[in-house]
Amino acid sequence: MVEGYVNNRVHTDGSKGLVSLRNVDDVRFTHKTKISRNPLTIENLHTEQISANVHAARDAMRNQQSLNAYRNQMTAGLISDLRAAGDPEIGADGAPVVNLSPAPNQGALDAQAALSDFGSMTNESTFTDEIIGRDNDKSTAMLITAEVSSPTHIDDAYIVGVATISTDESPEEEVIFFNRIGSLDQKPRRVRIIKQGLPNKFKVRDVKIHVYRNGQELVSNQSSKQYALTREQVYEYLTLERVSQNRGKSMDPEPAWSLAPQELFATAKANAFDYPLTVHVDAHGKVTGIDPNKFVPGKVVNVVMELPFYPGLENGQAIASNTLANLASFFR
Question: Are 307 and 260 in contact (CB under 8 A)?
Fold first, then answer.
């Protein structure tokens, strides 16, 4: 299961580190009913076919310029640090000639070596492949634009999209694309996604955009079959789902993270919520109390008390029970 996305890499529950999308052979969606406090709004969705070469070259130049500027800035800072450490001589090429006594500043030297190794700062193939890694005479790209907004603040959101296209060789083909959004709020945020390496001629049949946070899909106005529920109906739904999917089992309560209070969606930092708790949950999934023997900040208590849970089960029946919970798990 994909648990997160950053810089054309995904984090999955089966990998220790990030996995490049170029090493992902296939992506499948699991269909599941989602419930949400604050649905997003996705509008002005538009697609068009563009030249792959022009945009890839332009993006590569932007990356190269940014990295060169960063390298120059870091080198200047390094020279300043070396001067402060031992007043080194600066050679004709601008590089410091280190002759410190009794011993050189190894950390600074390592930093200089890293800066000299341009490839260590970024995966150069990330953008060069887009220019020379494909048959550019036969490939084009698709530009997808849309506006996304949220009634409440959401941090670190990303898009997983599916475009259905048709070509002369295939009447229907699905193209998956990822894109980081970052922060969302009430002001519509324009997203612009370029999907490279498509056939020279294609027609867009359909495009669907799904917005995620920490591997959890966020409900939007594009979600199908939407129904408004009261808070009591939400607890009833969580209980029925828990019982129907776990017949005859005994289980501890679990947080319904998709219904987490806004405070958790508004930050990407888990430290402020990292408190192991013993939580008392009734047979409907409502939190009725927190272990009073542990010190917990008031804001953490308020979030836990508002967070719905899937109730505990005993032989398939929902019961009131206790469980260990930590709001920091929301960010993993």
Answer: yes
Phi, then psi, of 172 in degrees rounded to 5: -155, 125
Give the three-class secondary structure for 29.
coil
Is cis: bond before 276, omega within 30 of 0? no
Residues 6+ apart with CB under 8 A from 79: 90, 96
Q: Dihedral, CA atoms, 259, 262, 266, 269, nearest 10 degrees?
A: -70
String of DSSP letters for 264-328: HHT-S--GGG---EEEEE-TTS-EEEE-TTS---HHHHHHHHH--EEPEEETTEEE-EEEEE-GG
The secondary element (H helix, E strand) that includes residue 55 is helix 52-86
Measured CA to CA in angstroms, residue 170 lies from 11, 128, 165, 188, 245 at distances of 31, 29, 9, 36, 38
C-alpha 160/C-alpha 315 separation (Å) is 38
Contact 193, 144 (CB under 8 A): yes
Q: pLDDT tens digits, the chain, 332 residues: what are they? A: 887 787 778 888 887 888 888 777 677 787 888 888 889 999 999 998 887 665 554 554 555 555 555 566 666 666 665 555 554 444 455 544 443 333 334 444 444 444 443 333 333 323 323 323 334 445 688 999 999 999 999 988 999 899 999 988 888 888 888 899 989 999 999 999 998 888 888 899 999 999 998 888 899 998 888 888 888 999 999 999 999 999 999 999 999 998 999 899 888 788 989 999 999 999 999 999 998 777 889 999 999 999 999 999 999 999 999 999 999 998 87
pTM above 0.85, yes or no: no
Q: Residue 329 forms beta bridges with which residues?
A: none
